[in-house]
Amino acid sequence: MPSNIRVKICGLRTAADVAAAASAGATYVGFVFFAKSPRNVSIEDAKALAIDVPLGVAKVALVVNADDAFLDALTAAVPLDMLQLHGSETPERVAEVKARYGLPVMKAIGIADASDLPAIDTYAAVADQLLIDAKPPKNADLPGGNGLAFDWTLLADRKYWTIPWMLAGGLTPDNVAEAVKRTGTTQVDVSSGVEGAVGVKDAGLIASFVAAAKA
Ligand SMILES: O=C(O)c1ccccc1N[C@@H]1O[C@H](COP(=O)(O)O)[C@@H](O)[C@H]1O
Fold first, then answer.
1. pLDDT band at 68; cut points 50, 70, 90
2. Which end of the chain, C or N, has fewer beta carbons within 10 A?
């Protein structure tokens, strides 16, 4: 019997991507607003894509250190269910974004080793959800979406924070079941692991990922 694991498919760029994620059983779909990303979409693109997202599937906008001008334009144009802050936003900025836009905020936290773990508690005090991702390599162009996993055993004793969280970073159809088992997470997020080429989603990999996560 399928489990209640919730899956977010991030970096969707086409109507076919949205259809693939929704029909596979994703709970969240993510749109990336970051110019350096191969998954970047414009506000106009996202507005059109959002229309295709079925009711019950949450639309998440991923932004990186976005200013109010950009977020004002984004939230005015696109019907969103959540904002994902994937840059170096401070806890104060997370609280400010939450208050200004009235949307749930998910803060991404990069983990490389145990010294990164205290940030989880810090942001748990202000965000609605956390995205626990691999820390990007120094000088990486992207703060996420690099297909890198971190040492999941770092989370082994820390399964329960006060707010919901998702596991991300280098997840694929082949390793997601093991990641769920090792970390105890109930939510997973993937981008490059369901692509046939960089920035190009593969409907078969999306279906396999969701099935494996829920198996
Ligand atoms: O996907 C991107 O291009 C991206 C750009 C900037 C910040 C975050 C990004 N992606 C997020 O990172 C996680 C992990 O990605 P991956 O599965 O390791 O490729 C992804 O789920 C997005 O939330």
1. very high
2. N
Handedness of CA 121, 125, 131, 133 (dihedral sign): negative
Q: What are phi and psi of 102, to 5 degrees?
A: 65, 20
Single pTM value for the model = 0.96
Residue 10 annotated to the active site: yes
Atom of ligand 1 at shortest range from CA of 37: 3
Cα 51 to middle of ligand 1, angstroms: 23
Query: Domains in the chain, please, with CATH?
Result: 6-214 (3.20.20.70)
In this predicted structure, what is the pLDDT of residue 3? Answer: 74
129 lines ligand 1 (CB under 6 A): no
Which residue among 17, 121, 128, 133 is the active-site one?
133
Q: From 31, 64, 133, give the residue whose CB has the most ligand 1 atoms within 8 Å, as the site to mutate.
A: 133
CA–CA separation, 27 vs 46, rounded Å?
18
The question of whether 67 is a catalytic residue gets the answer no
pLDDT digits (tens, 9 = 90+) for 194-207: 999 999 999 999 99
Task: Give 203 Cα–ligand 1 centroid separation in angstroms.
Answer: 18
